[in-house]
């Protein structure tokens, strides 16, 4: 009896205090991999979220309510991500979650969020996250399957019919390798040689020599991220291979050109986002204002170039702000419904239009085919 | 023919890096029987400090020198702060301490530096050298040369100098070494400084090829350790041969068989060698001789 009293009274007081307070707030939870093996993706994501929340609050929050961000660093560990997701929902009582830098951590968070019926926006690539569609899970980055399709479209235009692949054995590389092999038939292209490398390898000349010596290969495609693709690009030039080289969106950043070296990167093509070529976009491009604003703010604040991955976090937050604004409510169910009705929202990655059947909301037009020319990116379509 | 040569170059480039790491393992193992798993972090620090100092405006040779000295100092600090206080503990405990040190250094590196991947210019440019129909980066020659120079230096040190013999004596029997007047504490400190310095040198030489980031240490440590095991722990000759062999096996497997089996092939060879020659290819003759 006594016990009930001591717990009920403070609870009632807190409830009263909240109800009486002038500024209720919107609580957004986030679990990203700011450290660990995916740190170079998660770190800009964490920075982006903190910066955007600060900016939005300075503008008066959403519908006059301030945003509180609860940010955890799961270090790329799927188990930690699951723990943090539970903590975000049960202890921090957030109304929505952004995060899951990698596919593994996203899958962990997704399971918890679906059970608790809290909207979750993933920042990872794999198509499994939103296919089949789960009621509370959304996602901002295009899938690796779309990247393959974009690349094969471009190859088709250039009359390339036979290619060699060299893929990283990490999760990203392996997943994209599988997706590319799955869709390549639709474009009438044949994979004549299929090599792999460990993401920590220091030299890929042996594999590339094999590709070069394979009869009839007209181009090489390298799914992968991190240092591997940079080394592949260097080795490609070292061996003097004269065929077109395609990289994935996993290396779509200025850092790639720097690491591979300007000369070695010359002519490399990849599907990238508008963010990478902010200055080259047409004035009437609907993504231009979004991309320029984010780029200027991020680079001004953190003194490092923006990348595709920070852009995913930007879009996740933008989707949420848009949904809460339209819902006029911070109730998780209402936010979910509004997210699903997102129409033509311009983000850094593309223009999002969600439906009950599509919780990604992007099509191939979100990718721009880019080529490195004179040490910088240019648009080739 | 040019294909074989190309695979050979690929193997030598990577193998030289492994050999340098394996040589670092050798020194601390010789002084203390401890396998220092922080060896990979020394390589990482060599690369990261050089990049950081170079980006801050220091000329490359000076930045590299600074990285080697700073890393050697850190090696001494690890010995003084973590290994020495645990003296007398079983060797397994000491090895676990080195793993702890490795985690600590990695964590500190991502705070002090950053989490991005970095590189700095190759010492002699990026124009590949053409030999017959194969090519090799000039920087590969720097790494291979570095491994050979360090090997000769160590070999002379362990076999021709009093101090080097004192290191081996300390390893063989610490108490006996103390009784004949060897300052075993100094020997340990020296070993850590030397080992860390060599690790950092490996990082400096290899970074233009392999690139660097705060978390590359573990990969180097594992492959270097494999090389040292293959050649025979504690023997510089073994470390050199083991490192190069692993690089060559990897390159040949990737080239002639399939890149899928590359990692596995190297480890199968190590298992076979250890199974039939438990001391590795070159055993521990040098210690026994003292």
For this entry, give a set of tags.
heterodimer; A: 381 residues; alpha/beta; four-stranded parallel beta sheet; 17% strand; disordered N terminus; B: 290 residues; mainly alpha; two-stranded antiparallel sheet; 12 helices; 2% strand
Structure write-up:
The complex is a heterodimer of chains A (381) and B (290). With 381 residues, chain A is an alpha/beta fold. Chain A has 13 helices and 14 strands. Chain A has helices spanning 2-20, 39-58, 78-90, 103-116, 144-157, 171-183, 205-212, 227-238, 254-260, 262-265, 288-302, 308-327, 332-340, and strands at 25-32, 66-73, 96-99, 120-122, 137-139, 162-168, 190-197, 219-222, 245-247, 269-272, 345-346, 351-352, 368-373, 376-379. In chain A, the strands form 4 sheets. In chain A, strands 2-1-3-4-5 form a 5-stranded parallel β-sheet, sandwiched between helices. Mean pLDDT of chain A is 89; it is low at 1-22. Chain B has 290 residues and is mostly helical. Chain B is globular and about 60 Å long. Chain B has helices spanning 2-32, 39-55, 60-83, 91-112, 138-160, 162-172, 174-179, 184-210, 217-231, 236-257, 262-276, 285-289; strands spanning 129-131, 134-136.
